[in-house]
């Protein structure tokens, strides 16, 4: 069974000191590096939030406050601080992430009108990123997923992977939650388990 490691959004803005820092984010990087060192993957894919500066998920572009919600093209949208803007330091992968064995990069969130949490498609399930096509082309059947953040981009990437028929595993030690609400991370785990995602310690 061919397998891939999908590393979700390990970018400066989601790490310590970033515009949308995930608590404890930097702690997962050594674990992710160790996975790549100790395991043989047929493909290693990075996903990268890659927003235009006028992206509609940014509170600043809607005259809203961070933490508010709006309806964006029929989909509820949480208002985020500006983050991972194309070409900025915040959008770059963290320097401590070992990228020597990376075989492919998927950029997402490029459409100003809709956010894209999942590495597979945008939030209204309209535009695909090409990740599913890439994995199927390389005959990948099993995906292991790590990265940031567990209750948003990691969760939706896991759910889409399972829905697309991949044996899907999440490395719990390789992810951290935003926890806008304290229970978000816990609830994300429950939801993933219900949809067939295996949680690895």
UniProtKB/TrEMBL annotation:
Keywords: Hydrolase, Metal-binding, Pyridine nucleotide biosynthesis. It comes from the Bacteria. Residues 4-198 form the Isochorismatase-like domain. Its EC number is 3.5.1.19. It is an enzyme of class 3 (hydrolase). Pathway: Cofactor biosynthesis; nicotinate biosynthesis; nicotinate from nicotinamide: step 1/1. Belongs to the isochorismatase family. This is nicotinamidase. The lineage of its organism: Bacteria, Pseudomonadati, Bacteroidota, Flavobacteriia, Flavobacteriales.
């Amino acid at each position: 069974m061919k397998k891939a490691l999908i590393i979700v959004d390990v970018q400066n803005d989601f790490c310590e000191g970033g515009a949308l820092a995930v608590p404890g984010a930097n702690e997962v990087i050594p674990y992710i590096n160790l996975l790549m060192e100790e395991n043989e993957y047929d493909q290693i894919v990075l996903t990268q939030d890659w927003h235009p500066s006028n992206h509609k998920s940014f509170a600043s572009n809607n005259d809203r406050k961070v933490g508010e919600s709006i309806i964006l093209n029929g989909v509820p949208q949480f208002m985020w601080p500006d983050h991972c803007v194309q070409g900025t330091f915040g959008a770059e992968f963290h320097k401590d992430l070992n990228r020597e064995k990376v075989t492919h990069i998927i950029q997402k969130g490029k459409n100003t009108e809709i956010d894209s949490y999942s590495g597979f498609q945008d939030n209204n399930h309209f535009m695909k990123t090409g990740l599913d096509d890439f994995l199927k082309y390389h005959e990948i059947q099993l995906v292991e997923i790590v990265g940031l953040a567990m209750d948003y981009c990691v969760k939706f990437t896991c759910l889409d992977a399972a829905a697309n028929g991949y044996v899907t595993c999440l490395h719990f030690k390789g992810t951290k939650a935003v926890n806008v609400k304290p229970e978000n991370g816990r609830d994300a785990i429950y939801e993933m388990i219900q949809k067939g995602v295996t949680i690895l310690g």
